[in-house]
Write a structure and sequence with these properties.
Number of strands of chain A: 0
Structural class of chain A: mainly alpha
Distance between the termini of chain B: 10 Å
Structural class of chain B: alpha/beta
Helix content of chain A: over 70%
Strand order of the largest sheet of chain B: 6-7-8-3-9-10
Strand content of chain B: 15-25%
CATH topology of chain A: MetI-like fold
Shape of chain B: globular
Number of helices of chain B: 15
Order of helices and strands of chain B: HEEEHEEHEHHHHEHEHEEHHHHEEHEEH
CATH topology of the largest domain in chain B: Rossmann fold
CATH superfamily of chain A: MetI-like
Distance between the termini of chain A: 48 Å
Shape of chain A: elongated
Radius of gyration of chain A: 20 Å
Oligomer: heterodimer
CATH architecture of chain A: Orthogonal Bundle
Number of helices of chain A: 9
CATH class of the largest domain in chain B: Alpha Beta
Radius of gyration of chain B: 22 Å
Largest sheet of chain B: 6 strands, mixed
CATH architecture of the largest domain in chain B: 3-Layer(aba) Sandwich
CATH superfamily of the largest domain in chain B: P-loop containing nucleotide triphosphate hydrolases
Number of domains of chain B: 2
Number of strands of chain B: 14
Chain lengths: ~210, ~350
């Protein structure tokens, strides 16, 4: 414990770096996953193909995926981000698809029958109703990314993975413990944050019956 | 006597008949990969202000026929006109905004309160806020849900019946001339359904929309309809008034469907007003008007029959809502309707 406080700037620096990696990966992943998820939920025949491909990505071990990437993109945070974004697609696209498919078909039919065009249906009706489930997917994804980003230590991408990696190499148990503690703390905080957002996004769905 | 009264009505209708609001001309629908037609060369005309019920067993094409009007289902061949314009000539979303649409599962938007649900179409067609607010309040009053109590509630805070009232208000929001109602009361318990049917009759008397109403519930059809389209296997078997369906069913299928041989039930579904002799004709002396038994325009004939039997009267005065005598009905008329096993068997 005292190690963390004595080396606070180092530990804190790595933690911030870790957070930033996760944040960037999530942002980029959402940019892809939202349109893909909406498309998959609207076009039935896309679903099987896209979800199968994502499933395959998910089964490739993380270090192996980095191994495939390094010859092309070299070491550094870029390589890590590509790997993180790829993994995040699986949980994000799956949840976004679920979220849109879970909307009461009567609501969609009513929206159509009232003369809403595709965009109006999406942003006025479907997206607000899908939001809670999408946030649940984001929460799961963030937890996944916090853990996965530690492999960044192996490709010189920085973050708490680096602290873990170097401490292991130098038999610095305190460093290992500090990294593990901060990782757990990050995960717990992220979990709580997104649970709160999720609940907030449901507030008008949860009005007193 | 009945057939006379009926043909008089028809003749009067023929003379100054307004332009039909909805016209189906040789309309067919064939789903891809099927050999038979879901809707098979249907031609119909619907007059303004009429409530037309599309009735038939499931799979008879009634829902398909209705959904082709707002193009949720595209027709395979033929033409549908609304106020003389082919529906294909209007952008599809503009067409839908001009048609009220009520569905069985209501489909209220759960993340919007009642007022916002009703405001959706008026907002899309560009009404200003003040006009929308006035309209929402007016409509909630019309469907029996006072705005002060219900405007800010969310759909899941309402009972099934209340939800469908909001669904009805939402469909009428931008004041469409045409409404499509797809089994709107089918998922509602029978007591509430009955009440909602009465409400719809009451509302329709004031707003006079042109309504296509799909149901497989015969009682509902006979109670609500100005005219009924009986469908089987994609074709129209008979397009006629409830009275005619009961008194002159086109074939055994229609007779069985509407239960034409159950005389009392048939009588219970026809209003006194449908067959009474209006007062403008010279009347034989009525048993001291006001003193004897009397009937309301919207009393049903079974009730009238009961009154004839208990009072022993030969003729009974019919009053309108304000209590003014507007016509009379005779025991002979009711008996005439009931002769021969089903309502009005004679021609």
């Amino acid at each position: 414990m005292s190690y963390i406080f004595e080396n606070w700037d180092v530990v804190f620096g790595y933690t911030l770096e870790h957070l930033s990696l996760v944040g960037q990966a999530l942002a980029i992943a959402l940019l892809f996953a939202l349109p893909v998820g909406v498309a998959v939920s609207r076009v039935r025949w896309l679903a099987t193909g896209v979800l199968a491909v994502l499933g395959i990505i998910y089964t490739v071990p993380s270090l192996a995926l980095l191994g495939f990437l390094i010859p092309f993109t070299g070491l550094g945070s870029g390589t890590l981000l590509i790997a993180l974004v790829a993994y995040a697609q699986v949980t994000l696209v799956r949840n976004i698809t679920l979220a849109f498919n879970g909307i009461d078909p009567a609501v969609v039919e009513a929206a159509k029958g009232m003369g809403m065009n595709g965009w109006q249906r999406l942003y006025r009706v479907e997206f607000p109703l899908a939001l809670p489930v999408i946030f649940a997917g984001v929460r799961v994804t963030v937890l996944l990314l916090v853990g996965l980003a530690t492999i960044g230590g192996w490709v010189a991408a920085g973050g708490l993975g680096r602290l873990l990696y170097t401490s292991l190499k130098t038999d610095d148990l305190n460093g290992v413990l500090a990294a593990a503690l901060m990782l757990s703390l990050l995960a717990i905080l992220a979990d709580q944050l997104f649970r709160t957002i999720e609940r907030f996004s449901r507030r008008d769905l949860l009005v007193r019956p | 006597m009945i057939s006379e009264a009926v043909s008089n009505q028809q003749a009067a209708g023929e003379q100054d008949r307004p332009q039909p609001v909805i016209v189906f001309e040789d309309v067919s629908k064939q789903y891809p990969g099927t050999a038979s037609f879901a809707v098979d060369h249907v031609s119909l005309a619907v007059q303004p202000g009429e409530l037309i019920v599309l009735l038939g067993p499931s799979g008879c094409g009634k829902t398909t026929l209705m959904k082709m009007v707002n193009r949720l289902i595209e027709l395979t061949s033929g033409w549908i006109y609304i106020n003389g314009t082919p529906i294909g000539d209007v952008p599809v979303n503009a067409l839908r905004r001009s048609i009220g649409y009520v569905i069985q599962n209501v489909g209220l938007f759960p993340h919007m309160d009642v007022a916002r649900n009703i405001a959706v179409v008026p907002e899309m067609v560009g009404w200003d806020k003040a006009r929308i607010a006035t309209r929402v309040e007016e409509l909630l009053g019309l469907v029996g849900l006072p705005a002060t109590e219900f405007a800010k509630r969310y759909p899941r805070q309402l009972s099934g019946g209340q939800q469908q009232r909001v669904g009805l208000a939402r469909a009428m929001a931008a004041n469409p001339a045409v409404m499509l109602m797809d089994e709107p009361f089918a998922a509602i318990d029978s007591i509430t359904r009955r009440r909602l049917q009465d409400e719809l009759i009451r509302i329709q008397r004031t707003v006079r929309k042109t309504i296509l109403f799909v149901t497989h519930d015969v009682e509902e059809a006979l109670r609500l309809a100005d005219k009924i389209v009986v469908m089987r296997e994609g074709q129209v078997v008979q397009y006629d008034t409830p009275l005619h369906l009961l008194s002159r069913p086109a074939d055994d299928f229609v007779a069985q469907l509407v239960g034409a041989d159950d005389v009392l039930r048939g009588l219970s579904l026809i209003d006194v007003g449908t067959i009474m002799q209006p007062l403008s004709q010279p009347l034989p002396a009525v048993s001291a008007s006001g003193a004897g038994p009397n009937l309301q325009l919207h009393s049903n004939l079974r009730y009238a029959l009961g009154l004839f039997l208990t009072s022993g009267a030969e003729r009974i005065v019919v009053q309108d809502e304000r209590g003014a005598a507007v016509g009379q009905i005779s025991f002979a008329q009711v008996r005439h309707l009931s002769v021969g096993g089903h309502v009005g068997a004679e021609e």
